[in-house]
Amino acid sequence: MSHKILILPGDGIGPEIVAEATRLLHALKDRFALAVELEEAAIGGAGYDAAGEPLPQATLDLAREADGVLLGAVGGPRYDQLPWEKRPERGLLAIRSQLELFANLRPAILYPQLASASALKPDIVGGLDLMILRELTGGAYFGQPRGIRTREDGVREGFNTLIYSEPEIERIARSGFEIAMKRGRRLCSVDKANVLEVSQLWREVVERVARDYPDVALSHMYVDNAAMQLVRAPKQFDVIVTENMFGDILSDAAAMLTGSIGMLPSASLDAQGKGLYEPIHGSAPDIAGQGMANPLATLLSVAMMLRYSLGEAAQADRVEAAVGRVLDQGQRTPDIWSEGCAKVGTREMGEAVVAAL
Amino acid sequence: MSHKILILPGDGIGPEIVAEATRLLHALKDRFALAVELEEAAIGGAGYDAAGEPLPQATLDLAREADGVLLGAVGGPRYDQLPWEKRPERGLLAIRSQLELFANLRPAILYPQLASASALKPDIVGGLDLMILRELTGGAYFGQPRGIRTREDGVREGFNTLIYSEPEIERIARSGFEIAMKRGRRLCSVDKANVLEVSQLWREVVERVARDYPDVALSHMYVDNAAMQLVRAPKQFDVIVTENMFGDILSDAAAMLTGSIGMLPSASLDAQGKGLYEPIHGSAPDIAGQGMANPLATLLSVAMMLRYSLGEAAQADRVEAAVGRVLDQGQRTPDIWSEGCAKVGTREMGEAVVAAL
Ligand SMILES: CC(C)[C@H](C(=O)O)[C@@H](O)C(=O)O
Ligand SMILES: CC(C)[C@H](C(=O)O)[C@@H](O)C(=O)O
């Protein structure tokens, strides 16, 4: 039986980087007997261009049928003037919500070959390998009521609702403990329980789920302190679990600690482990179409998909090893280039990984 | 006419560090003719101990009469089991709200003498001098409705409301532009306007206020990107203005960039420029009572008070210069100590600054 993979190139550098993922998947199929079928559909600005919607119904239908979805990136200045509901980001938020992709895994790994790219001192980040688990379908991102209204006294106000139910917290907490069990068995739950009631419930539920995982050392940290600790001593963390908005902020900070966000993949999973995979970097409109984007985060997203959704751990290992070899050989796209390395483009980098499989 | 200063030692290391501030203020009075009267009152856990409330009414009354309020820090494990409304943090949040201290200035400055303490590489942070202006009396911190409730289907949910009115945004935006005018004339407003309606209103109002400040270069940045940029290239910023929760997170990250949060003061101002001043570090219960806490952030908070609330810029300069001289002499509390420096305690450090006035 063949794995069905849906490819969503999206906008900006999206098409260029997923082209290399497609190349990789074809190579795995042809040379290493990976059983895959690929389809492609439009999302984001491309979805709007093709079908008038950032998440066309046809794309959503294909995504539901797929065993794994690979996304490039969405967004770009061309779409900035569209009304709110048509903006590229709405497509991304809609697919996360529609597919109930509540568990967003964002690893922050420092590749030893790229250690010098970090803004942090080598002893602070050397060997960094932390996993941020971000809740992805709740909180202020989706909470109702929301909007901009005019009060009775004529004053306008904008408002959003930061809301989590017990089952929503429980399932992400459980994912956090499961991931911690497969790693260093340390889970840090990040909240703002000294200020927010929603965080108090969060903490209470996380504590309760913890009883089912006696082998995991659970700690709690306020989000402001977590932001500090990520800068001060990021290696203290193994797995961090947190709500949607805090996760958005902290995972981007954590990614930047490595200095090479062009290297970092992510997975967004539903309760059955089906998921959407995407590089954590954005659509980078400024370099789109120039063939210089780094495809490695996307190729590593393919590896995550093989591992988490397709049950193909050996193929995932193969991809990750190939990426490691290419880095060892000194090939670098401009974003990760340093003195003494060979500067290559998107396509050369993709081909190099395929050659190193 | 004498300036009335209210001192709120609070909890943990609070009493130790404000004792040095008191010493400093007495020295300025005796030796440099600063006209001040000091009073002291209880807040936080100390408020609870003294009067059963984290913000006793008597403290609030004195704070209203004062020209400036100096706070040590609040909170500690002794108070962790208290009900929500009695917790030390509630005292801090209540005084901010009651005095309408909406403008929270958090400078992140790297002292050249302490450059090696940063987790970041010297070229990334050397010369760092950025100001984060955090809105302090709105957003999810104070938004209604809030709580934990049981839905009709029996499921519990926690909820908070992230809300800003147009006048609230306008006044903090205006403060941001005013501060930028006195600095490098660059203001970056941080929001999450691609997801939150409250941020869309925020951005719209900031844009409108900008028309009154044609000399300030305004930019907008999403909060996740801002967290990244602070790690990647913090010197790109001059002044950042943002809402309460984003400001809480980003200002702590920014402070930690310097590696010496024991050095950083803050000011929380009302519309008339009256304010509360406090070190940005917390109550550090683990080292409380040991005489090893760094009092410099508190002494620099006194300098900020002299400058912003009391109109005593020359005295402020005097204090800041004295701190610089003590650092030049190599005196260091344990938190900022490095090889080749003299390790001193809280009191010795306070005395050294007074001697260097
Ligand atoms: C584009 C934006 C809506 C999105 C988010 O905030 O979730 C992005 O920042 C991310 O983290 O994937
Ligand atoms: C103690 C806490 C309530 C407070 C806040 O979140 O505002 C603190 O973190 C701060 O930044 O002053």
Automatic annotation (TrEMBL), chains A, B:
Cofactor(s) needed for function: Mn(2+); Mg(2+)
Binding site for substrate: R96, R106, R134, D224
Binding sites annotated in the UniProt record for NAD(+): 76-89, 282-294
GO cellular component: cytosol
Record-linked Pfam families: Iso_dh
Transmembrane segments: none
Subcellular location: Cytoplasm
Marked site positions, Important for catalysis: Y141, K192
Subunit text: Homodimer.
Family listed: Belongs to the isocitrate and isopropylmalate dehydrogenases family. LeuB type 1 subfamily.
The protein's name in its UniProt record: 3-isopropylmalate dehydrogenase
Recorded name of the encoding gene: leuB
